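[job 0417] fold request received: Conserved protein of DIM6/NTAB family
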Amino acid sequence: MFYHTKDGSGLPRDPFAAIVSPRPIAWISTRGASGATNLAPHSFFNAVAYTPPQIVVSSVGAKPDRAKGKDSYSHIVETGVFCVNIAGSADREALNASSANYPAGQSEIDALGLEAVECETIDCPRLAHVPAALECRLTQTVDLEGKDNLLILARVEAIHLRDDCLTEDGRFDVLRYEPLSRLGYLDFATVTALFQMRRPKL
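[job 0417] inference complete; emitting structure tokens
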């Protein structure tokens, strides 16, 4: 099968998100200029550099009660900071519930009864229970092609690691929490097995 993306695949559902998978999920917590907090998952997310550590997140879609983008995007532009909470398998129901279209000003953290604590380097809440959290400072936004496609680039200022996810030899062990990832359609996956390969030397 072959198709031009501008023409569509002709399949019942667009396969693009299933092809580019699995994708890590940024469970983003924010506090807007008004003091309102927000929590939402974003599945177009990844790390893009080591030094300094930097990430990229896309905000796709809009809300009628926002001038541009969704609540997370609006808060990030207003304050310049946000926190990426890393979700494990145990978070699947709460993460999915936080994707509901809550009105601006309604805190998903409060609505779902999740415990939040303050970040250390930025004015933003983070989820207390997650295996890892990245305190991020906005460096750039980019309007992408297409309606309501917005790109966020940020520098990671500080990192929280849950102690029970660290091994005795100092490795962050993803199998201790099984990272949640996004596939296509309504599909999610968790990491339950690892294998290693050394980079070849020529």
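[job 0417] notes: The longest strand covers residues 149-161. The two ends are 37 Å apart (CA to CA).
[job 0417] exit 0
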